[in-house]
Amino acid sequence: MVAITVRDIPDDVRDELAARAARAGQSLQEYLRGLLVHTAAKPTPDDVIARARTRVQTTGSRLDAATILSAKRRDRR
What we know:
Number of helices: 4
Shape: elongated
Number of strands: 0
Largest sheet: none
Order of helices and strands: HHHH
Radius of gyration: 20 Å
Mean pLDDT: 93
Low-confidence stretches: none
């Protein structure tokens, strides 16, 4: 593991994060660590779009918006 230091956090931001940590029953360090781990585990929107574009280029498969929305509506039933 590695230690990370973040400087120049505004007081009001630090206070809000500390309050959220307290409500979660965690120290500020535990709370921030959890946020960072959770954030890093999720792909960014740009990553998702890049993967989708790669998949389309690789497979040559394309669906129009109407087909996608229709499938989405069927899945909600």
